[in-house]
Amino acid sequence: MRRWIALFVFLLTSLPLKGEETRHFTLSLAEEISASGLVDYILPRFALKTGRRASIVTADADARLVVADGTAPVMARGDVVFALVLERENDAAKRFADWLASEIGQNTVAAFEPADGLRFGPPPEVAVAVAPVIEGDAGLGREVAEAHCARCHRIAPEMRGMTLGSTPSFAALKTLPDWTERFTAFYALNPHPSFLLVEGVSPPFDPSRPPPIVPVEVTLEEVEALLAYVAKVPAADLGADIESR
Fold first, then answer.
1. What is the DSSP string of 176-187?
2. Higher model confidence: residue 129 or residue 28?
3. Residue 198: beta bridge partners?
4. Is 231:145 a contact under the CB 8 Å cutoff?
5. Position 14 pLDDT exceeds 70
6. What angle do the packed helices 103-111 and 91-101 form, to 10 degrees?
7. Taking a C-beta distance cutoff of 8 angstroms, is the pair 199, 224 a contact?
8. In whole angstroms, what is the distance from residue 100 CA to residue 107 CA?
9. CA distances to 67, 139, 197, 204 from 144, in Å
10. pLDDT in tens, 25-44
């Protein structure tokens, strides 16, 4: 009897409440996309932006990212065009479709560098903006940076204090052409995963490898705010390019 009660409670709590948007969906992939590692790059960024997660399955998926066959394309790799097919009503899958077709989604796909083969990009008829719009509370972002990032990075040109000399400042990172991608995905770039969690996005720490320092946990709102703050930090003046004589 207890087992049946436990099962009922699990099912009840797993189902979205009436009026509550679904925050998870299943996704199946074309073999070429699966082998490329593309979704390992774009799904964490989609989750960071929207708070929605996807699980990769091989059958009976809410959505399929497959070679386009008469359906509207969302990306291309060389001469091969891919489409996202929604198989059933799922708010999170629809949110992913909208994100993937957006300027930010298309830029994220184009930024992925596969280990082998051609890069992915938009289909010919999709125009892509060069830079996404960054929204968020820059004031809160400064507070987040001071509380968590300043232990290693110089977060502002006027800042002085205890930082690690081997870590670049925010101003120096702003000189890189892909700084938006680096800051958007900072939580997934080493060494951050070993001590930092983004609430609702990052997997839990491995019990066999505890954080080497006091762990940090931030919310999606705080991440968005941090990005908004970084967008306002002026890029460092690194001087003119070196010329050989």
1. STTHHHHHHTGG
2. 28
3. 218
4. no
5. no
6. 70
7. no
8. 9
9. 42, 9, 14, 21
10. 999 999 999 999 999 999 99
DSSP string, 113-168: --SSSPPPB--TT----SS----S-HHHHHHHIIIIITTTS--STT--S---TTSP
Q: Are residues 95 and 31 in the same domain?
A: yes
Q: Which residue's entry shows tokens 């052409």? A: 177
Q: How far, rounded to the nearest angstrom, does the alpha carbon of residue 137 sit from its chain's CA centroid?
A: 19
Side chain identity at 108, as an amino acid letter?
Answer: T
One domain, residues 113 and 153 = no
**Residue 70 pLDDT:** 74
Domain contains 241: no
What's the pTM value of the predicted model, to 2 decimals?
0.49
The range of the structural domain enclosing residue 65 comes to 20-133
Residues 68 and 112 in one domain: yes
Per-residue pLDDT tens for 190-199?
Answer: 888 888 888 8
Domain-embedded: residue 243: no
- Contact call for residues 67 and 77 (beta carbons, < 8 A): no
Domain for residue 4, yes or no? no
Q: Residue 55, SS3? A: strand
